[in-house]
Amino acid sequence: MPRYTLECCVDSVESALAASEGGADRLELCAALLIGGISPGLALFEQVREHCSLPVRVLLRPRFGDFLYSDYEFQILKKEVEQFRRAGADGVVIGCLQPDGTLHIDQMRELIETAGDMKVTLHRAFDLCADPLQAYEQAKILGIDTILTSGQESSCEKGLPLLKKLCALQADGPQLMAGAGVTPAVIQQFLAETDITAYHLSAKKILDSKMRYRRENVPMGLATMSEYSILQTDKKIVAQARQVLEAASV
């Protein structure tokens, strides 16, 4: 039977603990998950390491937005790869593109060399590539371990046709990890229709802040979400996803 991987994307110690308690195999650690995730601070990584025993791959993204990086931004990325390698991260989650939508091979190679013996995931920059089949082959040449992808759609369910095509390539290439809109039900569907064995989910629930005094209508960032709402991983959802994978392993 194949070995299944359940990765949970988290941006707090609380979420990391919930993911672990729910049965996740690995964490993707980031900050600001509400905007798709950016690079976390070392202090957060160290706290997660102290309180949670799961392997941690660190998402490195210097800003919100596309993956075409200036020289300054690239140097930040390279420095972060080095910092988290020294801090003991198990892997990094990275991706750099050229203006024409191809992988920036030179930047990717430099980051991978800096990563040393850490595992490398190509994140959803892959979903913005002009030619995903070409990008997959380039990732294989670069020695990338995993590609996190929704099949170039807003959710992995919508991207299922491309994901099925990519499955035919992964025998000797990077492992495909389905992401975006992953739920226990989606995992069940994918197990029946694809050869994908790795799944990435945030399993988030919205908690109400414990603040009693509240000044409304003063947004600190995205006005679409209350400042008194907290996103946190729900261990029950993670556990349900784990149960689906365990049933498939029997």
Overview of the structural elements:
With 250 residues, the chain is α/β, with parallel strands linked by helices. Helices cover 37% and strands 18% of the residues. Strands 1-2-3-4-5-6-7-8 form an eight-stranded parallel β-barrel, surrounded by five helices. It has a two-stranded antiparallel ribbon with strand order 9-10. Helix 3 packs parallel to helix 4 (105-115) and helix 7 packs parallel to helix 8. The radius of gyration is 18 Å and the shape is globular. The model has no long low-confidence stretch (mean pLDDT 95).
SSE arrangement, N to C = EHEHEHEHEHEHEHEEEH
Strand order of the largest sheet: 1-2-3-4-5-6-7-8
The Cα radius of gyration reads: 18 Å
Mean pLDDT: 95
The dominant shape is globular
Query: What percent of the residues sit in helical stretches (DSSP H or I)?
Result: 25-40%
What proportion of the residues form beta strands (DSSP E)?
15-25%
Low-confidence stretches: none
